[in-house]
Amino acid sequence: MNTKTKLVLLGLVVAMCACQSRELNTQQSFLTGWKNFDHKTTNFEAYAGGEMVAPVGMLAIPGGSFTIGQMDEFITAPHNSERRTLTVSPFYMDKYEVTNLGWREYVEWTSFVFGRYNQDIVKATLPDSSVWREEMAYNEPYVANYFRHPAYSFYPVVGVSWDQAMAYCQWRTDRVNEKALIAGRYIEPLPYAKVGPNGYMSEEEIDKFLKQNEKHPEYAKYDKEAIEVPLSIAKGHGYEGEGTPAPNGGEPTVTMYQLPYEWVRDQFAFNTEKYLNDNGYNPTMGKGARVDAYGDKRKITSVDGVLVIGYRLPTEAEWEYAAFAPIAEEGEYGNPADGKIYPWSGLHPRDLSKKSKGQMLANFVRGRGDLMGIAGAPNDGYVITAPVDAFAANDFGLYNMSGNVNEWVLDVYRETSFGVMTEYNPYRGNVYTVIQNDENDKPILTPTGCLAVKFESIDDKRDFKDGDLTSRLDTDYPLDTVGLSEEQRAEVKFDPTDILAPHITKTSRVYKGGSWNDRIYWLNPTTRRFLDQSKSSNTIGFRCAMSILGDNNTQVK
């Protein structure tokens, strides 16, 4: 055993001893002396530390400081990226952009659960395939096939708005947490067969099923829903009769029953916040439910380390930091991102190493009419988007942080944001919400079973310290005063230059990274553009992020 190994082992022993002798602990109060977890007293449950659930498909990005903003002076470029040093906390980030296959899982789940009840919910999840249409291009094969065809399964989903991306983040959070609770036997598996496209039941079956839920405080409001189904479907459920002849001579029908939409929304569509806030949710609490000091079953809570805290879009600062991947080498004390123009090292978009010399490092437009290079070795193979694992990863292990598709970030766009943001975890877009209750003080649910929220105008911080005064001007004045009286015309605001006025609003969201249809300038992670959060494009996709709690600052070697 060499000297270096001995020193490492000695350090580990010292560290272990230090941990074991720590004064601060959860067994006894360091301030009052009372024991915790004691059913003879108040049974105070004291927790500390604990591992976060490692989210599937994500990489841990260590926190740190870096210089955000424009590095070069471009006379014709917008000056909307003031350079300054900031610090971000550690966070998780998707290794890849969200794929068509990943989005189809979302669409199919929504269709399976809600398709029989509310098609508008399903339509809201669909990407806008018309984003591929161009007046002077033949893109109909993309319109018809890009999202659905298996050939594009691992390509980035496009045609999704910022609003849709946020809804996907919520859905992903709920599905991951639902799976974790079922796997740990903390809740019973939900009866998917009862709500699917063929989830029909006889009257006896549905009465029995609903009776199993009568412990729920709101059981009385649920009632079965009669529906006429073809005889062939009824026989698949064990029906042995003849059915009622159809008046038009078609296949006979049978009266069967389906669960009411209210039950599916309230009880079946698992939502994390609903689970944590509703004491009556899933009263059986599963065979693996944890118990308190009195032996009573209790729900899993946020302190048990079972649930993920929630997927979201990365903030602009997080995204730019993750794209540059500023990792200091041993003995380096400066900012390694300084001088970096792209997520890869060097100033050239081609790989200059001996092994892969000449290969492109990103998917972008090289010049007028040149989206993929000439046939042969210099050709990157992709006219439009590329698979999300194409090209090389950056130093954090993230793929396609430049090129392929632009990516939505969480922030509201303002030209002057970087100059007024805080120096740690900067973000513009806070809206502080509370759960919305009905007249009986019961939480109101959205059509998909999530908790509805509300906010007061004072809690909307999207315009906080907005130095761009023109973005706050109300320029949507009516220009047509025909038919109005002179008195009415005098009261109507009139702005003949409205067409030249800026249209930056509270719903203008930032997207970054450059795409398959952008020139190399936009591949610099400091560049920023915006689009209304309800709009979509064939050049914009996204990836998810998640905060890391505590001091779990993963060290990248």
Which geometry do the CA atoms define?
globular
Instruction: Please trace the helix and strand order, writing H or E for each element.
Output: HEEEEHHHHHEHEHHEEHEHEEHEEEE
**Biggest sheet: strand arrangement:** 13-12-9-14
**Number of helical segments?**
12
Characteristic key phrases:
four-stranded mixed β-sheet, three-stranded antiparallel β-sheet, globular, alpha+beta, 557 residues, 15 strands, 12 helices, disordered N terminus, 20% helix
Question: Care to describe what's here?
Answer:
It contains twelve helices and 15 strands. Mean pLDDT is 81; it is low at 2-20. The chain has a four-stranded mixed β-sheet with strand order 13-12-9-14. The chain has helices spanning 3-20, 100-114, 119-123, 140-145, 162-183, 203-211, 231-236, 261-268, 272-277, 316-324, 417-420, 486-491, and strands spanning 58-61, 64-68, 84-88, 91-94, 225-230, 253-258, 290-291, 297-298, 406-412, 434-435, 453-454, 508-512, 529-532, 540-541, 545-547. Strand 7 and strand 8 form a beta hairpin. With 557 residues, the protein is of the alpha+beta class. 20% of the residues lie in helices and 11% in strands. Among the domains are: 1-48, no CATH class; 429-463, no CATH class.
